[in-house]
Amino acid sequence: MILKNINFELESGKFYTLLGASGSGKSTILNIIAGLTDASSGDIYLDGDRINDVPINKRDVHTVFQNYALLPHKNVFDNIAFPLKIRGVDKHETEKRVMEVLKMVRLTGYEHRRIQKLSGGQKQRVAIARAIINQPKVVLLDEPLSALDLKLRTEMQYELRALQQKLGITFVFVTHDQEEALAMSDWIFIINDGEIIQSGTPVDIYDEPINRFVATFIGESNIVSGIMIDDYLVEFNGKRFESVDGGMRKNEVVEVVIRPEDLRLTLPDEGKLLVSVKTQLFRGVHYEIIATDELGQEWMIHSTRRAIVGEVIGLDFDPEDIHIMRLNETEEDFDARIEEYVDEEEIEAGIINAIEEEMVVDDPKND
Q1: Which CATH number do you get for residue 98?
Q2: Is the pLDDT of residue 351 over 60?
Q3: What is residue 121's predicted lDDT score, i.e. its pLDDT?
Q4: Which of 77, 162, 256, 266 is close enough to 226 for a disulfide, judged by CB 3.0 to 4.6 Å?
Q5: For 292-313, what is each residue's pLDDT tens digit?
């Protein structure tokens, strides 16, 4: 995979996720940080020191692989102790530190267990214990939960996140699972075709996708064409709606995103949109409803209320539920627009404050 202008910084002690589909380049990035793959250009720095030419075993970085890469002929204790043995740590100190990390990963009493006798979740814990035994500055995790069943995978998400917060070590986690990334991360990098499409907190990524790819890759989305009439006013489906977005050109063609969970079922005459229910599926925590409006546009709705296939209903939503995307906007364009828009707001607020202060000074009552 050829990476394209990959450039980012990581803050110590945070949980970062590289999120993308198979072949997007996320594992290549991880391997370059680990030293498993050489970068043809560019530099990798760790605490200000360039580490491009530093051997794998000399980097203060440890990797947890998808298949865990455990030594099948050694027991749990010896697998976890392996990095200490390489560094020549004495026997007493090794035993002390191995027992400490076994307690952290809830495997106390398993030190003499053979690797072949462990479950998938237990093997994953051993791999993590081995990764943190030396307290590295960075732990790299290459889809370590992908082989686990759904229930165990969810449990391990909680455990892994709690362990990272307790240790304060920087984690860089690779996954193609959007829900996993949203649940575990402090910061997410969306990777596609060898480049970072968008980065931000899970809330930022979900609530403010910069383009159609991100909006459809992260969660479910209703995306329709629209026109930004003015700041805070957008037109779609032949109607104008208040929004909370601005900083675009007047009458600029945009794409409008409304998440399925932000659409509320109403009586036909009470909704902002009028739709006919096409299909309905029960998803456990909600009903997934597909409905069609007067223009033939399909809308997905997630609701705890049940609808009836064939009935006409209204859909309601709030201004903050409408998310505006510029066509083909990059992350740099998005950041620049938001920064410029915020600056304009601050300038306008400053002018208003100055005028108000001047009016107070000039008020005859003050003489």
Answers
A1: 3.40.50.300
A2: no
A3: 85
A4: 256
A5: 999 999 999 999 999 999 999 9
DSSP 366: G
List pLDDT tens digits, range 187-228: 999 999 999 999 999 999 999 999 999 999 998 999 999 999
φ, ψ of residue 267 to 5 degrees: the values are -70, 155
| Strand spans (E) along the chain | 15-19, 45-46, 49-50, 61-64, 138-142, 170-175, 187-192, 195-200, 222-230, 233-236, 239-242, 252-258, 264-266, 273-282, 287-293, 298-303, 312-316, 323-326
Judgement on whether residues 154 and 284 belong to the same structural domain of the protein: no
In a domain, 363, yes or no: no
- Which pairs with CB-CB distance under 8 Å and at least 24 residues apart come from 301-307? 301/260, 301/263, 301/265, 302/220, 302/260, 302/261, 302/263, 303/263, 303/264, 303/265, 305/265, 306/280, 307/265, 307/277, 307/280
Domain tally, the chain:
3
Residues 228 and 277 in one domain: no
Give 310's DSSP letter.
T
Task: State which residues form the domain around 296.
Answer: 264-316
Percentage of residues of the chain with pLDDT beyond 70: 89
For residue 212, being part of any structural domain is answered with: no
Q: pLDDT tier at 337 (50, 70, 90 boundaries)?
A: low
Q: Are both 145 and 225 inside the same structural domain?
A: no
pLDDT at 361: 43
Residue 95 lies in a domain: yes
